[in-house]
Design goal:
The complex is a heterodimer of chains A (about 325) and B (about 250). Helices cover about 30% and strands about 30% of the residues of chain A. With about 325 residues, chain A is α/β, with parallel strands linked by helices. With about 250 residues, chain B is α/β, with parallel strands linked by helices. Classes of the chains: A alpha/beta (about 325), B alpha/beta (about 250).
């Protein structure tokens, strides 16, 4: 038994989510190899080689993989997958885009967004926006899996000494091209892996008003998120959306400001350790999952929160 | 150009989901069903392409038991020209659904396939990508903008870090994200007209596909409930609790 983990990386850095996927692979058991595919990914491969529990890093440095196009990447992964019993990636946008193509190439099912490993072929995954948890067993010889990374504690980033092997296969399907990207620039921590997240909802009333929660975020070293309602209303960009179809977060502290708490939002943050809700509607469903609820006008409560926090942090 | 739109019947997104007491699944008896919200966005996008004069014909397709014809009629009422039902009472998992859709694609030869990025029941987010691979097509997943430009389609995708735009050779598969458009409601006259639009029924065997589920669901459970929390009276009390009780700041 052996697992091929597909590394997530961004601007020459191995993404923390990869360490959680390695943790899921450890739960399966057997050898763990990591594939780093992209352009100029030498330093990412070196970082992956240091991760705990990795036997070998496969480095595929090629223009064809430069923008992580699923059409090209899936051909590479499917070719390598034949040597493994499991292929795992995070359930981030690259994994979600690419892994089903890999499964189709191998003529196997994909098990999406697992949150627990019960045995080498049996996994738990959320369905119906997390309102039910299914235990599923795969009968395929190669198991293609995406991992809900917030459900697995990351392995140590340092201490390993895996070998690095370069992979020469250059698969260019020639049917898709990268045009451009608009990536959010922020000095705040990454939403998906931050220890503290503060999110705003429709109650924020405008994008400008997000400034008051950004001030609190900066005080706490927190990431800023949003509900779908706030994104749909155009207050903030889509990459800030927390929920069933946005980002899944599970920080130590989640502060929901002006968020009513639709099922789809709860699906994205319900695993947080401590949840705080600030909302003027005392019947808002968010209070049913909040450890600490404050019924108040957010435009008074949030600036007050900033003042009070300044005294203690 | 011809557009194929795949739609799925799912539990209505407003319904509170209940797990069956015997843990075999979710209770769907007497529960309101509807078209998957992402599929509504897919139909809307196809209709807009037709209104712009880019699409000439919209074919809606679904897979499932006879009752799924309701969702095809909805698609027809929203503007699809004709519909195909792949009729089966068996469980159809993503890979088999993709194989059935691939057979429909082979027959219909659409220039563009539009479908939802995921269905809100199984939350798999797979079928569009699997179809694209099986059909040898490129894909624009999680689309927030779609522009057909000659022999190519430009798709802006919602990704983890923001937005990414790709240019795809046609034919291609596009899977919809929430902000691609805001679906319209079907008008009463259009609902009446939809009843007369052609709806063809085929079986998986007609398509040469036999459903072979690879995943067995052993158990379906309620998630662990959270411990009930408390209401605090003031911001001071909140900060005090976070610092001294929860110890998270």
């Amino acid at each position: 038994m052996s697992t091929l983990v597909i590394a997530d990386h961004n601007k020459g850095e191995l993404t923390g989510s990869t360490l959680s996927v390695i943790a899921a692979a450890k739960a399966v058991g057997g050898d763990i190899d990591v594939l780093v595919a992209g352009k100029d990914i030498g330093s990412v491969a070196e970082q992956a080689a240091k991760a705990e529990g990795v036997s070998k890093v496969l480095a595929a440095d090629n223009d064809a993989y430069g923008h992580q196009l699923a059409e090209n990447l899936s051909l590479l992964i499917a070719e390598l997958a034949k040597n493994y019993s499991h292929v795992m990636s995070s359930a981030g946008s690259v994994g979600k885009d690419t892994m089903p193509r890999v499964a189709a190439l191998l003529d196997v099912a994909q098990v999406s967004e697992i949150m627990a490993v019960q045995s080498e072929d049996t996994f738990q995954r959320p369905i119906y926006a997390g309102n039910a948890i299914a235990t599923v067993q795969s009968s395929d010889s190669i198991k293609v899996i995406t991992v809900r990374t917030t459900s697995f504690d990351p392995v140590a980033a340092e201490g390993g000494s895996a070998s690095i092997e370069s992979v020469d296969s250059a698969h260019d399907a020639g049917i898709s091209e990268f045009v451009s990207e608009e990536l959010a620039e922020s000095d705040r921590p990454d939403l998906a892996s931050a220890d503290i997240v503060i999110s705003g909802g429709r109650g924020m009333q405008s994008g400008d008003n997000f400034r008051i929660i950004e001030s609190v975020a900066d005080l706490l070293g927190a990431a800023v998120g949003a509900s779908r309602a706030a994104v749909d209303a155009g207050f903030v960009p889509n990459d800030m959306q927390v929920g069933q179809t946005g980002k899944i977060v599970a920080p130590n502290l989640y502060i929901a400001v002006g968020i009513s708490g639709a099922i789809q939002h709860l699906a994205g943050m319900g695993e947080s350790k401590v949840i705080v809700a600030i909302n003027k509607d005392e019947d808002a469903p968010i209070f049913q999952v909040a450890d600490y609820g404050l019924v108040a006008d957010l435009f008074e409560a949030v600036p007050q929160l900033e003042q009070e926090l300044k005294k203690v942090v | 150009m011809k557009v194929l739109v795949a739609v799925k019947r799912v539990i209505d997104y407003n319904v509170k989901v209940r797990v069956k007491p015997d843990n075999t699944g979710v209770d769907l008896a007497n529960v309101k069903m509807a078209m998957n919200p992402f599929c509504e966005i897919a139909v809307e996008e196809a209709v807009r392409l037709k209104e712009k004069g880019i699409a000439s014909e919209i074919v809606a397709v679904t897979i499932g038991p006879k009752v799924t014809q309701e969702q095809l009629r909805t698609a027809l009422a929203l503007g699809a020209d004709r519909a195909i039902q792949v009729e089966t009472d068996e469980e159809v998992q993503s890979l088999d659904a993709a194989k059935m859709l691939k057979a429909v694609v082979d027959k219909e030869e659409p220039n563009l396939v539009i479908m939802g990025k995921q269905s809100i029941d199984t939350d798999n987010n797979q079928t569009g990508q699997m179809l694209a691979q099986l059909a040898g097509m490129p894909q624009g997943t999680f689309a927030s903008e779609v522009d057909v430009e000659g022999e190519k389609v430009k798709v802006t995708r919602e990704i983890d870090g923001g937005l990414l735009t790709v240019s795809l050779n046609l034919p291609a598969v596009v899977t919809t994200d929430l902000r691609l458009n805001e679906p319209r409601y079907a008008s009463l006259p259009n609902i009446m007209k939809a009843k007369k639009k052609p709806l063809e029924t085929v079986s998986p065997a007609d398509l040469g596909v036999e459903a072979a589920p690879r995943l067995k669901t052993l158990k379906v459970e309620e998630p662990q409930p959270r411990q009930p929390g408390i209401k605090v009276e003031s911001v001071e009390e909140l900060v005090d609790k976070l610092k001294n009780e929860a110890k998270v700041i």
